[in-house]
Amino acid sequence: MPLAVLALPQSEVVAVVAPPGADTTDAVRIIAKAGGTVLNRGGSDNVLLARSDRAGFARRLYAAGARLVLDGSLAEGCGPSAPSPSSLTTAADTAGNLP
């Protein structure tokens, strides 16, 4: 018998999949109810990349109605890329070193 193991994402950035038939507005509501911030849209109207600094974001997303929550790194290529906070810091540090 096949066995699937599901783990809650541990990264700050996650891909949030709203239930079938949901649109972008529905997905935004789920993220807002879970205390997150929308980063950008994924490949479908019901898929958004989001983040939260508070622990337990994935659990709150499921409680708010998300159908699936994936680690944001798994969603690369599903839509426009969102810079990570660390890449923004690195870019700012590098820009400060320019002549």
TrEMBL record:
Residues 80-99 have a biased composition (Low complexity). Residues 79-99 are annotated as: Disordered. It comes from the Bacteria. This is Uncharacterized protein. It comes from Methylobacterium brachiatum. The lineage of its organism: Bacteria, Pseudomonadati, Pseudomonadota, Alphaproteobacteria, Hyphomicrobiales.
